[in-house]
Design brief:
The chain is 34% helix and 26% strand. It is of the alpha+beta class. It has a domain at 73-202: Roll (Nuclear Transport Factor 2, Chain: A), CATH 3.10.450. Strands 1-2-3-4-5 form a 5-stranded antiparallel sheet. The longest helix is centred in the first third of the chain and has 23 residues, at 7-29. The protein is elongated.
Length: 210
């Protein structure tokens, strides 16, 4: 005897098939995990970012020495001339002896300095220590070698050079070594360079030209 389902039974059977297919579809679309596998080992979605785009390469030409010189307010030749005046002045300024009077000391420095500085040296406001009696009594002789350590300020017509003076001091007490660091302001240009100010480097000479 054959079974002839009613229309209501047919609808129920069809709904059951649809549910079964839907469950099977969800099953086959879920990721498969095997025993011992970690969840982090699951394959990444296709839309995941696999890497950042490469960085853009820098463009342009390397900076040359000519480019750097074009940024300076004076030429390298002018800079070298100004710094050499500062060096020579410092060597002369920090060299003195017990039997050299103030007038002779000033004459040695005059080629390197402006008139106001020369006048100060002549009045004893600058240069060798004021205690000349002590120099004479101990027969002090100081010789100095100067070297430029750097610059603090550069403009179109002035340079502040940081100059180190290494001194050898000889007296009746023996021979000792000393050093000084000076900030030396040099002004001028095509007509020549002159020292217009000198101060201890730590005093922060910012380029005074008086």
């Amino acid at each position: 005897m054959s079974w002839d389902p009613t229309p209501g039974q047919r609808k129920l059977a069809f709904a059951g098939v649809v549910v079964a297919l839907a469950v099977a579809g969800v099953y086959f679309t879920l990721p498969t995990f095997r025993p011992g596998e970690d969840a982090e080992q699951a394959p990444a979605p296709a839309s995941a970012v696999t890497g950042a785009p490469p960085a853009a390469s820098p463009t342009g030409s390397p900076t040359s020495s000519a480019d750097l010189e074009a940024l300076l307010p004076m030429s390298s030749e002018e800079m070298a001339a100004a710094i050499e005046v500062a060096r020579r002045f410092t060597a002369a300024y920090t060299t003195y002896r017990h039997d050299e009077d103030s007038a002779a000391y000033r004459r040695r420095l005059e080629p390197y300095v402006t008139d106001p500085i020369a006048g100060e040296i002549g009045r004893g406001a600058s240069g060798a220590p004021a205690g000349r009696e002590d120099l004479a009594r101990e027969q002090v002789v100081v010789t100095s070698a100067a070297s430029v350590e750097g610059t603090r300020l550069v403009s179109a017509d002035s340079v502040v050079a940081i100059v180190r003076a290494d001194q050898t001091i000889t007296s009746t007490k023996g021979t000792t070594q000393a050093d000084q660091r000076l900030a030396v302001t040099v002004i001028g240009g095509d007509g020549g360079w002159k020292v217009s100010n000198v101060a201890p480097a730590e005093a922060g000479n910012a380029g005074d030209v008086s």
